[in-house]
Design goal:
By secondary structure, the chain is an all-alpha fold. Helices cover 62% and strands 0% of the residues. It has eight helices and no strands. Helix 3 (31-44) packs antiparallel against helix 4 (48-60), helix 3 (31-44) crosses helix 8 (117-136) and helix 6 (82-95) packs across helix 8 (117-136). The termini are far apart.
Length: 153
């Protein structure tokens, strides 16, 4: 059961968070990659609400359900491009800051795939989804599943 509707309890702050989300959506990062990043961060943060939402959005936008099912094991497949792999590794590092600093090799790999502003944009997308996860998880945002879609293999 949802504990609190933060958008009602703190509307000004919620609007600011929503503005961050809107700005993050306007970066040069491709929408397909944004879906993967948001879903992977939400998996790490155990945010069921966001996992359901971003899985549904990704499928609606044409992402293959098999790739989404294997996202948490992305290192064990060849289904993700080098750019996607760099973004997913960066997502995991930025999301799990409590495990220590981000090493120079990981930074270099991310920067090679996302030069200059692109890495800043990617990082801000990751920060935005982590903020949403940190609202949805403690307040037990109600999970809503997207309508069942028939996705061909």
């Amino acid at each position: 059961m949802e504990r609190m509707k933060v958008e009602q309890a703190a509307p000004e702050v919620y609007k600011a968070l929503f503005a961050l989300e809107q700005a993050a959506q306007k970066t040069g990062i491709e929408p397909e990659l944004i879906h993967l990043v948001k879903l992977r961060a939400s998996q790490i943060n155990h945010c069921a609400f966001c996992m359901a939402m971003h899985t549904g959005e990704a499928i609606k936008d044409g992402e293959h359900s098999g790739r989404l099912a294997l996202l948490s094991g992305w290192r064990e497949t060849d289904l993700f491009t080098l750019r996607e792999q760099a973004a997913l590794a960066w997502t995991e590092a930025v999301t799990a800051l409590g495990t220590g600093h981000i090493d120079d090799t990981l930074y270099a790999d991310a920067a090679a795939q996302f030069p200059g502003r692109a890495l800043a944009d990617l990082t801000l997308v990751i920060i935005a989804i982590n903020a949403w996860n940190r609202v949805a998880v403690p307040f037990r945002k109600t999970v809503v599943l997207a309508p069942k879609m028939d996705v061909a293999a």
